[in-house]
Amino acid sequence: MPAKCRVVVCGFDPMLVRGYLKTGARALWWYLPDEIYEEFNVKSGYKVKGKLLAVYNPRGEVRYAHPTETFEWAPPVSAPSRVVGEPFTWETSKETGLAVVLPAQTIIKYGLTEFHFLE
To answer: Alpha-carbon distance 53 to 118, whole Å?
Structure first.
């Protein structure tokens, strides 16, 4: 069942994230909302599919996700006329199905840190 949610990115200090990306270690993740976790009985290693609609930085500026284009940061009121979104398939962590690990490509593309929000 589809659900739209805004989640906070969790992880390590931005300087550590750069090193973890180079070594292939997981650097950033986000937690599934409890309702979704319980409804789908998510286990470790499951794949979570969805669409990344937007990325919010710590200043509240938003960047709308698109599979091929890159966007500049903009105030949240300047939403696009249609929701595009970037499809994703991300795995849950080895320890628990509650944490969804962000792949290195996504972290690099959007310049993510533990101070960002995903929608």
So the answer is: 8
Structurally, how many domains does the chain consist of? 1
40 within domain boundaries: yes
In a domain, 2, yes or no: no
**Would you say residue 15 lies in a domain?**
yes
Q: Where are the beta strands (DSSP E) in 1-119?
A: 7-8, 10-11, 28-31, 47-52, 54-56, 62-64, 86-91, 99-101, 117-118
Contact 92, 42 (CB under 8 A): yes
Tens of pLDDT, residue by residue, the chain (119 residues): 567 788 899 988 877 887 788 887 788 999 999 988 999 899 999 999 988 888 888 888 887 776 655 445 555 555 444 456 788 999 999 998 899 999 988 888 888 888 889 98
For residue 72, count other CB atoms closer than 10 A to its CB. Answer: 6
